[in-house]
Amino acid sequence: MSPPSLASILQTFEDELFFATLDVALDIDQALVVQSAESPVYIDGIRDVIRYQILYPAHSVNLTYRYADLRSKALKFLQKQSAIGSMEYHKWGMSGWEGRWAITVPNENCFAEFLETLKIEEERRNPGQKIQTDIHSATARLVQLADSFNSVARTLEDRRSGREPLLIQDEYDVQYIFAALLTTRFDDVRPEDWIPSYAGSASRVDFFLKNESVFFETKMTRGALTDRKLGDELIIDIEHYKQRPDCKALVCFVYDPKQFLKNPRGLENDLSKQADGFEVRVIVRPR
Fold first, then answer.
1. Which CATH number fits domain 138-285: 3.40.1350, 3.40.91, 2.40.10, 3.40.50?
2. C-alpha distances in Å from residue 194, one per residue of 43, 91, 117, 197, 204
3. Helices 108-125 and 15-34: crossing angle, nearest 10°?
4. pTM higher than 0.85 for the full model?
5. Interval 202-214 mean pLDDT
6. Hey, what CATH topology would domain 6-129 get?
7. Residue 131: pLDDT over 50
8. Would the pLDDT of 217 be above 90?
């Protein structure tokens, strides 16, 4: 008697475990875009941006532990199905969910087939509800790219065969690299030129994710750009995009490689919000 197919196994899963499996698989897929499969890829123990409400329906300690446990069980299932290789959890905080998984993907084709089967099952469970057109999913993908950006930058600096390193020296370099990264995760990426109204501003290129109605902007810190000044600039940017009827969300990526900002988490928390059908997410990296 032949073993059951992956598709038939997934159909027996309760929604919580199925969507946890899809959740971690999508995280791994996104990590593979900017990390080499030859070395471990990293995903968080729990996500900052919840992709599926069923996995974390409300904020509480117990539900956070439950969410972390569901993702752990999902990874073990991926390992059992040979979609991933080894998995090791690196804890850094006092609570059980503060950490990230180091995961190897020995066979990218096998993983891709596994993910495709998951997407087919998702469509069967939620016909017509595609994750690629969801604003929250778009935000989640942007956060994933932002989390990996510093490692991409370090990789570009270390070129082989005596080639000149590619150094990120200013905001234009950040825009240039993100222009390439965005096309790996979104089908319709449109550059938008505009000149902000704050003093000393030059023309800047932001990105409009047409299918998702999301704008994405990048900044890079420098010695003269204080937390307060950066916050004031972001407030102006937020108000600018809030007036656009085609913008449902704005994601602002701040690259701070030399850690000029004194309170990056405070900046993120103060400006990230959702109200009146408009979502703002500020991401400062590296952490």
1. 3.40.91
2. 35, 43, 42, 10, 6
3. 140
4. no
5. 82
6. Arc Repressor Mutant, subunit A (1.10.10)
7. no
8. yes
